[in-house]
Specification:
Layout: E1 7-8, E2 14-15, H1 25-36, H2 41-48, H3 51-57, H4 64-79, H5 98-110, E3 128-130, H6 137-140, H7 151-174, H8 179-186, H9 188-199, H10 206-219, H11 223-235, H12 237-256, E4 264-273, E5 279-289, E6 294-295, H13 303-317, E7 330-331, E8 337-338, H14 349-369, H15 371-378
Antiparallel strand pairs: 1-2, 3-5, 4-5, 5-6, 7-8
Helix pairs in contact: 4-5, 7-8, 7-12, 8-11, 9-10, 14-15
């Protein structure tokens, strides 16, 4: 069986054989012949002109539903053009309906997808950047590798990913740090398995069944572990700063994809000051085309200038955290360290931690080496 080499088409450039490397010339010709019976050359040329956009769309993994939405949007646009009038003109056998033409257009694009993408995976359009390092949701927090699982397996994996994201978003955006919430966020697969187990014997379903499954699992969980996770999450400001732009991007993308806002483009600037007083800036960009029902990736024309301007503005707004001792540990006449007087209302947890460390170290030196060494440490 001879293999079909990569095509060089009118849309410019070499494109991988859309039917895969193991398709013969004869099979490929039959496929193209079947399509040409429905679409004439001018119609095929217009669809071919959309292949670069298709390949760009598939640079991020997509679900079958997302791909169907994309082809439906393109079919709506194409069938509104005079060129495609013959594709929906009724004929004797009644096949040339709008619905039938939409299906044919969907198949046209489907057979031009790279073979490894046909089972589908999911992602959000990459639209976030950082002045320190590019923040791409698809690159930093979700896998962009090709899926080799079945569609049903993928659907389950995608559902679990969405559950995790929703739980994480709730924890971060609503500020809830309860141990039970962390248990739910960390055990999405286990919860789904429990739901399946209970479904055959339970008289309820949906959210009620999910709550029952969670309650049963939570009763047997190591609650101390999740209490610790809740405390760590609340104190992990740097981790929350890193996650927030991506969560914001995902949330906004989900909102615009409802089509309730129609055509819309959003651009939000964010800036954080980390524990070392370094400035981190991000830009979250989301755009949606209501006609094609698809998100649109875009980069501002003057991106570098805009990011630099925002960094300067944010640097002036956010205070710097200069690490200077809050107080000085004094000693009494015997050289014993004395706990200082501290205004807790105006003291940050980080500053208080530094004072405690200084005091305990002075006490440790006193016990190990005597008052003289303790006083020498405190005089530094």
């Amino acid at each position: 069986m001879s293999q079909l080499p990569a095509d060089v088409d009118a849309f410019g450039g070499i494109v991988p054989n859309p039917l895969g490397p193991n398709v013969s010339q004869e099979q490929y010709k039959r496929r193209r012949g079947a399509e040409s019976k429905y679409f004439d050359k001018s119609q095929t040329a217009e669809m071919d002109a959309l292949i670069p956009e298709l390949l760009q769309f598939l640079r991020s993994p997509r679900t079958n539903e997302e791909f169907a939405e994309w082809t439906e949007g393109k079919a709506t646009i194409l069938l509104s053009r005079p060129t495609f009038l013959s594709a929906i003109t009724p004929v004797a056998d009644g096949t040339r309906t709008v619905k039938h033409a939409q299906h044919k257009i969907h198949r046209f694009f489907y057979h031009r997808k790279p073979k490894q993408t046909r089972t589908g995976t999911s992602s959000t359009s990459s639209s976030s950047t950082s002045s320190s390092s590019a923040l791409s949701p698809a690159a930093t927090t979700s896998s962009s590798t090709s899926s080799t699982s079945t569609t049903s397996t993928f659907a389950e994996d995608e559902a679990l990913r969405i559950v995790r994201l929703a739980r994480r978003s709730k924890l971060l955006l609503e500020g809830e740090y309860k141990a039970r919430d962390h248990f739910i966020a960390s055990n999405a697969e286990l919860i789904q398995e429990k739901i399946k187990e209970l479904k055959s014997t339970s008289t309820v379903n949906g959210k009620a069944l999910e709550n029952i499954a969670i309650s049963k699992l939570w009763n047997d969980a190591d609650k101390a572990l999740y209490e610790s996770m809740a405390n760590d999450f609340a104190a992990n400001v740097s981790g929350n700063q890193e996650s927030f732009p991506w969560l914001l991007h995902t949330m906004l993308t989900d909102i615009v994809k409802t089509n309730l806002l129609g055509d819309v483009a959003l651009k939000l600037n964010l800036a954080f000051r980390d524990a070392q007083s370094d400035l981190k800036t991000y830009t979250v960009r989301v755009a949606y085309n209501a006609t094609s029902r698809s998100t649109v990736e875009f980069v501002p024309k003057h991106q570098d200038e805009e990011e630099s301007s925002w960094a300067i503005e944010a640097d002036g707004l956010l205070p710097r955290h200069v690490e200077t001792p809050l107080v000085k540990i004094m000693t009494n006449g015997a050289g014993v360290p004395m706990w200082p007087s501290i205004d807790l209302e105006n003291t940050t947890p980080r500053q208080l931690k530094g004072v405690v460390e200084m005091y305990l170290k002075a006490v440790w030196i006193l016990e190990r080496k005597g008052p003289r060494h303790s006083s020498r440490y405190l005089s530094r």
